[in-house]
Amino acid sequence: MDRVSVLEQEIADLRKVLHEKETELYQIKNGWVMRQLTTPVEPERQNYNNSGVQYSGNLPKWAIERYSRQILLPDIGVAGQEKLCKARVLVVGAGGLGCPASVYLAGAGVGEIGIVDYDTVDVTNIHRQILHYERDEHVSKAESAAQTLRSINSRIKVTPYSIQLDSTNAMQVAANYDIILDCSDNVPTRYLLNDLSVMLKIPLISGSALQMEGQLTIYGYRANNNPKEMNGNYTGPCYRCVFPTPPPPEAVGSCSTNGVAGPIPGVIGALQALEAIKYIVGHSHSGLLVERMLLFDGDDTTFRTVKLRPRNSECAACSDTPSICQLLDYETVCKTQAKEKKKEDTLKSERRKLEKDKRMSGQSYYGFRVKADGTKKWVQDVPKSERRLGPRCKSELCAKGTSRKCSMITETDRMDMFRHFWNDLDWREKKAHVRSLVDTVPAKRRRLKHKGDVSRKGDSKRYHLRSGGERMPVCRVMFLNTLGIKEAMVRSWLSSSDRPKTPKKALKALNVNTFIDRIPKMAPNCKICSKNKEYIAIDNVTNLHQLYNLYVRECAVQGSVPASRKTFSKVITTRNVKMKNVCECITQNVWENQMHVGYSV
Amino acid sequence: MPALKINVHFGGGAELLFDKIKKREVELPAVDKYLPECEKKGWTIRELLVWIKENLLRERPELFLQGESVRPGILVLINDTDWELYGELDYELQPSDTITFISTLHGG
């Protein structure tokens, strides 16, 4: 094992050295390229782009050679390549779509690529996010992607933004770009990018992928700066023209819960890059996916292009008199978090209780996964439908016979019984209700064929429904469907009796609470923070570990049993006690200011 | 009026509410027999949604319908064209039309 760790360390060191040398080479090369390009051939025909890299009217020799295979295409040509080298593209999301899209853009020599992602690389991302490698785990996705893009094409400018794009910073980031590629994975960011693209009058190439399907289209296309367009006033629809209202949050799936096949975002991402290249070299809207949507189904490998509605002249975002003139708080508008919550541990028990309450009141809920051996897996994501009133008994036997009175119960009675059962009774009362309506009698046997055999059936059940105070005998189907329950539930309720619940042991958290009450604390200095926050004021205690040790020592002196570390930290969190008197909102502000300096240069 | 044969397709995850079947060929009965209170002669999308809810939808209707229309985020296509261009709910179905319900994806 020693040899393994030594080798791992050596490899890590070598990688570091390699990275340093690569960066150095990249800088020297770039400087050299700049100098080479600034020696003017025909100064009056020089063009500049924002990255400071200059391209003369004629492409440099290396560029002609390097991009020769795409320059050969009549659609691109030398003129198209010049446009590509001057283009600036913002890729939002360095995930399944962002990675393949930016690879092709970098390969095609797009002059400047900005890549935005707040997240870090996780090992579960690598199957589809092809710019990240195993060694990049826990590294910022934007940084990791930028590094790989630089190694693909060292002649272009790549800017990583490791930030969460929101209404406060989006405008500043996007103002430097000509096209936005929407490779994000959530609804708020999609609406944010749409409004942003409409305000900046730049197109939004929007891709999405989930499970085995992908979708792609271009929103907010404007013809006015393309000389090839027949109609210079043409404007394509925006996202809000097609989807004016955000979908309900429970209807939105994500790759981490619903899964995705790696090549699906690969296909869509590559096509996003193609559309971006076509737009840059100046294709007209009839050749681009404007007012059309591509649907890719990986299940049967079919591509379909469907026609979308044109721009809505009363759209809230892109009409001539828009009602949305500045960026909004999209997380509130869409009732969804843009950032996926990774830590769910603290919420698990609450979630379990919530789902249990829903289940017991007959609503739809999420159940546990069940393993092949029938045991529960503690992951609660299996959707279960709500309780419903089933169809009534339609049996002719019930109608003809005199013993059962199924046909006498009206549909409104059934609805009332169903509502009473699920809305008015608690779980214990439900059980009692069912027990009062079902009688158990010795097994009846009618079939002559088995006469004399010992029946394996333990008993027969007689079902009743209570209507207007009267207990009416009904058939099994009528009974179960009216209450919206299954037979197994009745059987288990009849066989078990209610046991009183064993009272839970007193929480150890109690002595943590008294400990926290005792120790010296102080109020926060910061005025922005909520008032109910407190800070620990003990010398030598700067972290939770030290505080816990102090607590354990105190418990030993008192002779009481200390609570576990987990319980301890939970209590600390619920009491809102913090360790250092440095406010989080201050540190965050400092960090954001640094970020602004970082990308406004 | 004879029965009306049309194709109904689901995609983008909407098929999960319909037994995971993406493509169906359905035969609609005469509208005045199926919905006697409806005073129309032909099927429109509005009645089709009612028929789908009662005959095809397996679970969680709130993830497909909202009021008498589909919920936000579902794209309805009539012969591969956005239904807005055909008058949305009031479009009268023709024999062998293809009606597609696509749930928009947001993953990436």
UniProtKB/TrEMBL annotation, chain A:
<feature type="domain" description="THIF-type NAD/FAD binding fold">
    <location>
        <begin position="67"/>
        <end position="316"/>
    </location>
</feature>
<keyword id="KW-0547">Nucleotide-binding</keyword>
<dbReference type="Pfam" id="PF00899">
    <property type="entry name" value="ThiF"/>
</dbReference>
<dbReference type="InterPro" id="IPR045886">
    <property type="entry name" value="ThiF/MoeB/HesA"/>
</dbReference>
<dbReference type="GO" id="GO:0032447">
    <property type="term" value="P:protein urmylation"/>
</dbReference>
<dbReference type="InterPro" id="IPR035985">
    <property type="entry name" value="Ubiquitin-activating_enz"/>
</dbReference>
<dbReference type="GO" id="GO:0005737">
    <property type="term" value="C:cytoplasm"/>
</dbReference>
<dbReference type="GO" id="GO:0002143">
    <property type="term" value="P:tRNA wobble position uridine thiolation"/>
</dbReference>
<dbReference type="InterPro" id="IPR000594">
    <property type="entry name" value="ThiF_NAD_FAD-bd"/>
</dbReference>
<dbReference type="GO" id="GO:0005524">
    <property type="term" value="F:ATP binding"/>
</dbReference>
<dbReference type="GO" id="GO:0016779">
    <property type="term" value="F:nucleotidyltransferase activity"/>
</dbReference>
<protein>
    <recommendedName>
        <fullName>THIF-type NAD/FAD binding fold domain-containing protein</fullName>
    </recommendedName>
</protein>
<keyword id="KW-0067">ATP-binding</keyword>
<keyword id="KW-0808">Transferase</keyword>
<dbReference type="GO" id="GO:0004792">
    <property type="term" value="F:thiosulfate-cyanide sulfurtransferase activity"/>
</dbReference>
<dbReference type="GO" id="GO:0042292">
    <property type="term" value="F:URM1 activating enzyme activity"/>
</dbReference>
TrEMBL record, chain B:
<dbReference type="InterPro" id="IPR012675">
    <property type="entry name" value="Beta-grasp_dom_sf"/>
</dbReference>
<dbReference type="InterPro" id="IPR015221">
    <property type="entry name" value="Urm1"/>
</dbReference>
<keyword id="KW-0819">tRNA processing</keyword>
<dbReference type="InterPro" id="IPR016155">
    <property type="entry name" value="Mopterin_synth/thiamin_S_b"/>
</dbReference>
<feature type="modified residue" description="1-thioglycine">
    <location>
        <position position="108"/>
    </location>
</feature>
<dbReference type="GO" id="GO:0034227">
    <property type="term" value="P:tRNA thio-modification"/>
</dbReference>
<dbReference type="Pfam" id="PF09138">
    <property type="entry name" value="Urm1"/>
</dbReference>
<protein>
    <recommendedName>
        <fullName>Ubiquitin-related modifier 1 homolog</fullName>
    </recommendedName>
</protein>
<keyword id="KW-0833">Ubl conjugation pathway</keyword>
<comment type="pathway">
    <text>tRNA modification; 5-methoxycarbonylmethyl-2-thiouridine-tRNA biosynthesis.</text>
</comment>
<keyword id="KW-1017">Isopeptide bond</keyword>
<comment type="function">
    <text>Acts as a sulfur carrier required for 2-thiolation of mcm(5)S(2)U at tRNA wobble positions of cytosolic tRNA(Lys), tRNA(Glu) and tRNA(Gln). Serves as sulfur donor in tRNA 2-thiolation reaction by being thiocarboxylated (-COSH) at its C-terminus by the MOCS3/UBA4 homolog. The sulfur is then transferred to tRNA to form 2-thiolation of mcm(5)S(2)U. Also acts as a ubiquitin-like protein (UBL) that is covalently conjugated via an isopeptide bond to lysine residues of target proteins.</text>
</comment>
<dbReference type="GO" id="GO:0002098">
    <property type="term" value="P:tRNA wobble uridine modification"/>
</dbReference>
<feature type="cross-link" description="Glycyl lysine isopeptide (Gly-Lys) (interchain with K-? in acceptor proteins)">
    <location>
        <position position="108"/>
    </location>
</feature>
<keyword id="KW-0963">Cytoplasm</keyword>
<dbReference type="GO" id="GO:0005829">
    <property type="term" value="C:cytosol"/>
</dbReference>
<dbReference type="GO" id="GO:0032447">
    <property type="term" value="P:protein urmylation"/>
</dbReference>
<comment type="similarity">
    <text>Belongs to the URM1 family.</text>
</comment>
